Input
Amino acid sequence: MSKEETRQLILNNGARLVHTKGFMNTGIQEILDESSVPKGSFYFYFRSKEDFGRALVDHYDTFISAMFDKYLQDTSHTPLERLRRFFDDSCKFYESNNFSSGCPIGNLSQEMSDISVPIREKLHETYSKMKAALQACIEEARDQGEIAGSMEPRMLATFMLNGWEGALIDMKLSKSIAPLVIFKDMLFGCVLNRVI
Amino acid sequence: MSKEETRQLILNNGARLVHTKGFMNTGIQEILDESSVPKGSFYFYFRSKEDFGRALVDHYDTFISAMFDKYLQDTSHTPLERLRRFFDDSCKFYESNNFSSGCPIGNLSQEMSDISVPIREKLHETYSKMKAALQACIEEARDQGEIAGSMEPRMLATFMLNGWEGALIDMKLSKSIAPLVIFKDMLFGCVLNRVI
Output
């Protein structure tokens, strides 16, 4: 394997372990063992665990950006339908994963924001991109008259993403789909269907 | 100090450290050092770190229950005003703490739900109590005609608490009050002021 391929393998295994166990609770040795990479060679690929953490956020970002684009830019559906499909399919995904793990970016933001400034800055970039993707879809929904013109897309995107992240914590905690269903029912039945 | 006083001291110091650094990232030795308790005597007070974790949730629960009662049962204000004051004063608290740490129960729920069943069960109890306290206040608001009769208090309480927990993550991440302000503006200006 090339250096870049090995680096990607370490990131893949690290992403899975950190998503389940948390960043501080995942050891470098554990990631290397899973990757069959010789002990002690970690620093050939990353300058530090913090540097690895930043690369991990980029790794998650690539996956999440692709998923957001797939749903929120799918012009075969109206903007409001795209949002609905995004949350519906996310529910199916979490259901098939026994309501575990949640959102890797939300998890790391909770865990690392007060521990590492460089990792926090990287997470903040990705979280802002997630908000921007939702905002763009909300703006389209408003322009097409699917939601009221009085809705402020930037605020709505923040409220929506944060509400979803909170619902994912409740899902992990209660091992139930109910918090996600309540989020969707309140979002589409109460927040987005206002007339003015 | 009595055994119970020392146990409380360990819980106080543990609560502060875990709130800042996370549970898995806080060592027993570190807590004992802060408490000036002799090395190795931890197991005199707690059967295991997991047992300590459960006691820690009870410790947070006592503090949070008192705060919820103080605001949400304060009959010198209307139910809707109580909710408003609760979120307003929470904002001031987080502002004075440089937007750090967030909610100890939300944090542990995110971190520990997939790691320890006994700790998760304890967290689930406390989180359910927090929802119930909000729900009771929402029911009063509905009964007094402050919010629409079509509002379902149980769903609303879940949506409200989860939205707040998500906003707290965003606050830690962005080191800004903005996510909390947006949450309040959307909650009071959009969700709760519906006519039907």
About this structure: Chain A is about 75% helix and 0% strand. The longest helix of chain A spans residues 117-143. The mean pLDDT of chain A is 95.
